[in-house]
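[stage:ingest] chain + small molecule (zinc ion)
[stage:ingest] validated
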Amino acid sequence: MRSVSTRQKLKQSLFKQGRAALAAARPGAAAGYRCPLCLVDFPTPEALTLEHAPPESLGGRERCLTCGPCNRFGGRKLEPALAEAQRQYDSDKGLAPYHVRGTTRLRLAGCLINVRMIADKEQSTFIIPYEMNRPDVHEAFKDQLLALAGGGNVIDQNVQATIDLKTPEIPRDLERSAILKTAYLIAFSELGYSYVLDRAFDIVRRQIAHPEEPLIGMFGNGGPLNATGPIAEEGLWFITEPRDLPGIYVRFGHFGAVLPLPGHLTFYSEWRDRFPGEGKPRIRAAPPSWERPSQRLACVMDYWSHRRRRNFRWPRPR
Ligand SMILES: [Zn+2]
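[stage:predict] done
[stage:export] tokens:
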């Protein structure tokens, strides 16, 4: 956690960078910082908040500013779904023990008790916290265990235990909007307003704000799109295949999403038509060719060169 003054400085710095970037991208715009999610302009930084992308729960860093309502909407509604998806993925792959959220109930020899459960590949551990059970139930359960263990010896009889376990269902629409939001904010923080203020992103912002509406059929589906080789690494990539559907692929952790290039208003419907019903089409991608950008990427380049002149950090091409 950064200290308060470090966070204030970072906020000031991001505000100034964003204000300069907006003035460069939209010379007619009123002076200020534009929330990249709701596009409201803020003349001063007070109402803006530091935004992590990826979310803090996934180890992301504070990358840009968004307004309070947009930040809270993401934090309360979208990101818990993404964090749960990450936990279940890590547990499936044996990367981290799975802490079952909420209460699990364990039935042992007629005694029912609330437990916390932590599962990994090898074993499950049950913790029986005092505060989750009535004291008399807790005592009775302890007596039961001691009786079964024969006063401290190893249990030498079959013990029947039943676990009432519910793995939380992940609301897929919220998870998908959370992935899209993260990819969008990473792209914004790297490419700037020129890129995301393009009309091709209207549908992206609408989808983030209205996860329950199926506006974008497919944009990565939370998975790696069968991405192999270097593009399985985190970063911003330029899609080279399918050749006639170029775009940007943003990868973070094991999540990824495709984003349109400027002016490509039918990008997502073309993707959907190309891969009907397919969750994870195969794609190829390369580091964006910043030296020789395609026609469509040129408007992004304006912003990049502006940033480079001002010594903005640019991610290493990989
Ligand atoms: Zn906002």
